[in-house]
Specification:
alpha/beta; Rossmann fold
């Protein structure tokens, strides 16, 4: 089974059916909803969503909806922690190329797991280290 790491915005756009989500990315999320592929959610994405909820940039229910994804019948979502392999991979992503720390952590999560990253972020998509889907 294929697996992908998601960035925060891609996940939020999926949950809100936002047209900003590209067709290939939307297809991967639909496949995860149906159990055909796995979507990995980095722990930093959860922190970002809490922050966005607190700033009233996204609806308050988003964090609960994300936390419920792994237990949704038939779906394939998994949360992963910010652990030592992610920290080691973070050291490989240049700060001048990806200056935003949460984005670097998301990229490092994909790098440490050896998985493609679902993202529109141009700093991440231009990285030679990452395979990105958008």
């Amino acid at each position: 089974m294929s697996a992908y790491v998601t960035d925060t915005h891609a996940l939020l756009w999926h949950l809100s059916n936002d047209p900003a989500l590209s067709a290939p990315a939307a297809d991967l999320f639909r496949q995860a909803d149906a159990g055909a592929v796995e979507i990995i959610i980095p722990s930093i994405a959860l922190v970002e969503v809490v922050y966005l909820c607190e700033r009233q940039r996204v609806p308050d229910d988003r964090i609960d909806r994300i936390l419920a994804l792994p237990s949704m019948p038939g779906s394939r979502y998994r949360m992963v922690p910010l652990d030592e392999p992610v920290v080691q991979a973070l050291r490989r992503i240049p700060r001048d190329q990806v200056p935003d720390m949460p984005d670097r952590i998301i990229g490092a999560t994909a790098l440490s797991l050896g998985l493609p990253l679902i993202t529109r972020d141009s700093n991440l998509t231009s990285s030679q280290l990452l395979t990105c889907v958008w």
